[in-house]
Design brief:
By secondary structure, this protein is α/β, with parallel strands linked by helices. It is about 45% helix and about 15% strand. It is built from 5 helices and 4 strands. The chain has a 4-stranded parallel β-sheet with strand order 2-1-3-4, with helices on both faces. The longest helix has 18 residues, at about 115-130.
Length: about 130
Amino acid sequence: MAGRYYGYNRVSTKEQNLDRGTKNIEDYCATHELPLVKVFEDKQSGRNFERIRYTVMKEDVLQPGDTLIVSEYDRLGRASETKQELEYYRQHDIRVIFLDIPTTQMNFSEIPDEMARMVMSCINEMLISFYDL
């Protein structure tokens, strides 16, 4: 299940600072020896996913087998739209790790690929159903 590692960080306004969330992503990757390629950042409301850097990341950069790391689940977006995004990532075999949801951080490197895919699928399903609440 090797792939590339990308981060995504967002704040709601231009006055807010991206440093903390980006540092959390970078620190997580350094601690777990994950080769972080890039952190995409937006200073824009989470009310929809029409954000320039997010769109480039999702449509032009992320590929099946890649991992997207987000510092906090609400940094991705609002609940109803985030559920759709998580379904997209599941369908495209892109793993999403939320640093504030420990179950998304499981290490699959010791697990055979097919078993790792099943575990990842279960975690993705839990995340998606979480947004139904």
